[in-house]
């Protein structure tokens, strides 16, 4: 009887305002569900997951310094010459199964200084009548090398040239090893 009816909520608009959309589409998700953003977001998430897996794998394998592991790459002969003052073959120790090659850096003055870049590892292999050695460089970490020793499986008897494994530099010769 004398009850007042509640009025429905309504929105009034100001007729002096005018909204225009030129080649735009208004969506409730602000356009993030579009194929472009789906693809971009998938790539971003995939990159983040890849880096996280690489760090986790590196740490799981016992490495105390994942940054060093993730930045490791072969050092070119030009880099060894310029930043580390070159390299020479030092003492050679032969066992029944391996040859250990001691390498010495700093045989001449350096031409450039890269703070924070260190020797991260060394590798060697026997190919034909040559022993190829290579150094890896990376951001310095706890695993940076001070004494550089390369171990290779003992080849059959003969004389082997010890060379740096860099084709661009035409495999610079470091010395010679006689295997008996």
Q: How would you characterize this protein structure?
A:
About 4% of the residues have low confidence. The protein is α+β, with helices and mostly antiparallel strands and 180 residues long. Strand 2 and strand 3 form a beta hairpin. It has 3 helices and 8 strands.
Fraction of residues in helices? 10-25%
User: Poorly predicted ranges (pLDDT <50, ≥5 residues)?
Assistant: 58-64
Structural class: alpha+beta
Shape: elongated
Mean residue pLDDT: 80
Number of strand segments: 8
| Share of β-strand residues | 25-35%
Supply Rg. Answer: 32 Å
Largest pleated sheet: 5 strands, mixed
Q: How many helices?
A: 3
Secondary-structure element pattern, one letter each? HHEHEEEEEEE
Note the gap between the termini. 119 Å
Describe the structure concisely for a colleague.
This protein is an alpha+beta fold and 180 residues long.
């Amino acid at each position: 009887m004398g009850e007042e009816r509640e009025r429905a909520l309504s929105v009034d608009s100001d007729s002096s305002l005018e909204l225009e959309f030129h080649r735009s589409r208004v969506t409730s998700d602000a356009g993030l569900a579009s194929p472009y953003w789906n693809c971009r977001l998938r790539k971003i998430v995939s990159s983040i997951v890849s880096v996280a897996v690489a760090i986790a794998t590196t740490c799981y394998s016992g490495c105390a310094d994942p940054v060093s592991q993730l930045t490791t790459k072969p050092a070119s002969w030009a880099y060894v010459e310029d930043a580390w003052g070159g390299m020479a073959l030092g003492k050679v120790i032969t066992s029944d199964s391996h040859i250990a090659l001691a390498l010495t850096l700093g045989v001449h003055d350096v031409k450039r200084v890269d703070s924070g870049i260190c020797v991260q590892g060394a590798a060697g292999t026997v190919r034909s009548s040559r022993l190829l050695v290579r150094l890896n460089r990376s951001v310095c970490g706890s695993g940076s090398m001070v004494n550089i020793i390369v171990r290779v499986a003992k080849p059959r008897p003969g004389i082997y040239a010890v060379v740096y494994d860099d084709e661009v530099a035409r495999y610079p010769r470091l010395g010679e090893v006689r295997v008996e």
